[in-house]
Amino acid sequence: MKIYFNRKHLFKEIDYPNRYCKKNLFKTVSVIFGVILGFLILLKPFEVSTSQQKVNYIIICCFHALLPAIILYFYFTALNHLRAKDSENESWSLIWEYAHIGILLLSTGICNFLIRDLIYLNPNNWTWRYLWEEVRNCFVAGILLYFFMRQAIFYFDSKKDSSLIFQFTPLPPQLENNTTNTLIHIKTQVRQDDFSLDLNDLLFAKAEGNYINITTCNNNRLNIELKRISLTQFESQLLPNRNFFRCHRTFLINMHYIKNVTGNSQGYMLSFDHTVDQVPVSRSQLIAFNALYQELLPPPKHLA
User: Fold this and answer.
1) Three-state secondary-structure class, residue 21
2) Which of 30, 73, 102, 245 gets the highest tally of CB atoms within 10 A of its CB?
3) Backbone torsions φ then ψ of 266, nearest 5 degrees
């Protein structure tokens, strides 16, 4: 029987999980400590002879629950610091998450092996057999607990409000009625790559490493061009114009060309005319997106 494996799902770019962000990290490690401690005390998944225990079993469970919590806290604190320093390379996907979880489980297994002399009276503590046993146990229990907690997070998220935060109606194409010149010159790091862009034509731009894909529409004809400039540099040259918004780490949009918005408090998906491509609004940008949309809405017409 052929097994279907969706590789694209693993590599698809997603928002950096809130649970690993600095403001939520202590809460995350506290939950992990509590779950692991309860798991070890209630289920006793790994048999150990009581004659080999130097300390009470509850204390041993506390050691084994505290270690992964401490490792995770300092690991993601360092990772968050590195991500903040390199703002142009903050991509995240499921494959990245699984890789980091694998590193954490391996580190926890090695640390559990190193503290065996503190909690177990066994002359064979410092053997390859027990190193393998500790690492194996961490991966078996860690993977089960990780996916259990992911399912719990998914369940509680699904219980949240699933409706749009506001009622969306497309903004009028105000730029088209602007009598000022909307053709601007975009400067890149290499002068020969400089280019001109009509702001009336821009739908959205997508980051591709140190390049961007610019999607424009002129006379109902869609055009996509690759330009050698980072999205941050491109955005900085559009700053005076409030019609453009960085809705995601890799996307910048023209607010006046959005035709439909779907989603909920976890994030939006934006649709445009003349293209089937959709643009995400990250969870962290929802408030700013909503505020700018309300600001750009034309004032209601009053009946005479």
Assistant:
1) coil
2) 245
3) -90, -10
Residue 41 has pLDDT above 70, yes or no: yes
- CA-based radius of gyration for the chain: 26
Crossing angle between the packed helical segments 57-85 and 94-114, to the nearest 10 degrees: 140
Q: Are strands 244-248 and 183-186 parallel, antiparallel or unpaired?
A: unpaired
* CATH 2.40.50.1020 domain range(s) in the chain: 174-296
The alpha carbon of residue 171 and the mean position of all alpha carbons in its chain are separated, in whole angstroms, by 29
Distance CA(168)–CA(1), nearest Å, equals: 47
State which amino acid sits at residue 120.
Y
Separation of alpha carbons 245 and 285, rounded Å = 10
> Sheet of 267-272: strands edge to edge?
258-264, 267-272, 278-281
Residues paired with residue 262 on neighbouring β-strands, in sequence order: 269
Tell me how far apart the alpha carbons of residues 231 and 208 are, in angstroms, rounded to a whole number. Answer: 8
Query: CB atoms < 10 A from the CB of 113, how many?
Result: 20
Assigned token pair, 202? 């821009």
Beta bridge partners of 195: 186
Whole-number Å distance between alpha carbons of 172 and 95: 41
Q: What tens digit of pLDDT does each residue of 265-298 get? A: 778 899 998 888 999 998 888 888 988 888 888 7
- DSSP state string for 167-207: ---PPP-GGGG--S--EEEEP-SSGGG-EEEETTTEEEEEE
- Top-level class of domain 174-296: mainly beta
- Output the six-digit token pair for 199: 């702001």
Token pair, residue 90, equals 């903050």
Counts for the chain of helices (H) and strands (E), in that order? 8, 10
Stated pTM of the model: 0.65
